[in-house]
Write the structure tokens for this entry.
Amino acid sequence: MARAAAVAQLLHTGFCERLDASLAQLALVSVWIVFFAWAFLPQKLLLVLTFPLLLAGLVVVGADLLFGVDLIELVTVWHTFHLGEVIAAVQPYVWTIAVAIFAIAALAALLWSPPDSPTRPAVRIGLVIFGLLLAIALPSASWRGAWPVALAGAVVEGSLGNAGIELPDRPNVRASPRNRFDNWQAKRESPPLTPETYVFVIGESVRADRLPACGGRPQITAAPREAIVFCDVISGSSSTHTSVPLLVSRDLPGHNERVPHDATFLKAFEAAGFETFWFGVQERSIAWPDARNQVYESVPQLDRTALLPLLDQALAKPSQRKIIVLHAYNVHAPYRERYKPENAPFAVDPAKATGGVPERASIDQWWNDYDNAVDETMRLLEDVTARLQSQTGAAVVMFTPDHAENLLDDARGLRFHALKMPTIWDTSVPGVIWANATWRDANPEKWKTLEANRVAPLMHMDFVPTLLGAANVRYRETRSQPVDLTAGPVPPRTRFTQVRAGETVNVDQLRAQAECNRPGTTKIPGC
Ligand SMILES: [Zn+2]
């Protein structure tokens, strides 16, 4: 099983992240390889070699186009053994998938007996010459990265146990797409004499409107005392695998790589003299962080059980300045695996909200299930701030989830997240910032500015600049849109989120889509 997971992981990185050559170069070499195989291999052998991949490609594209299901995301969830999530996501489409597989198999049977007609010698000679020209003209990376060479390499490495999962704790890890020589050109004048601890809790699937401070039910644990809660934040995307990398880098939603080549903000803290930590219950390949200390817990357990002991170890280390990222699982479906029912505020009837997907008839039970996980999320924040409260020196905790969640909010009847199109429901996230008295006393103006920005319309890209602003770390900002919320008010701006690589949608468009699908109305003017 571990080997299968390693292969799955490498297939994913093989597809998505090994882009040392340009896309055009990779496409050119890949197309040449296909034509070369077509001209030189017996046609039946070519079919045997290519049909499984063609089938897999059709299924991935079909799932995306027809159902808005991201199968690549499901594969990465599966390889970390959260099989329940995959089953929950696939269940509604079981019959459709069965019919599709039958239809494709029938098509395969029809195509199975092609006559073996050899390609003309002139075509073969032409292909060889063109291949030689490509070999001379293009860098070797375009050959290593071309399909299916990259795929073959990934399979071989995975079978040899040389996996991208348990990689050594070094900043120059081979599989990371980030440029290890990059930095944020960060510096700061006159750092404080007291110790400093900054904690960034990156959450999962938490909707802003479920927090008590943002209109959620009062039985849910409130944000830590004296924290500022931001209720109007738009996430960078509606999928974990693009939102988290965006959150920690300087790229904008709609950029062309899943994981930016840019270093993460941890390098900026490191340049300012901080020891860097990243502790995740989610796998390293989601964001490829460049923290000096990294630990990933792959055994499914409560966030608090997994992350708090790691936080304690980091806090006990002797370094004076620390930046610690906790990447949690918060409210990712299946929600019931994220909390202990005996401690939860709401009763959930297991017959109505376990297994399957949310239906209108059982939606109240699903909300109870979801809100119990939100409650557990807030307890994690409570425990983190309690630990920092007992530390000496300045301490700041920041929280925001990667994206939010759809739960049958409008007439579209959408569920969960990472769908083909983001919605206002799966991108409206909360933000929380908390600082201890030492930090607030040293930075009264910054705290006042943060409080003044409490109701401002925010974007995910504001969070890292704010955390660096809180620490007085200056760095080279390549974007014009983000706002350091400790430094001044938020100017009017168009907020946007990622649809897919190269494509964004703005908040007004997302709101208009939700408005046009308001339940119970047959025809809405202007839709
Ligand atoms: Zn997520």
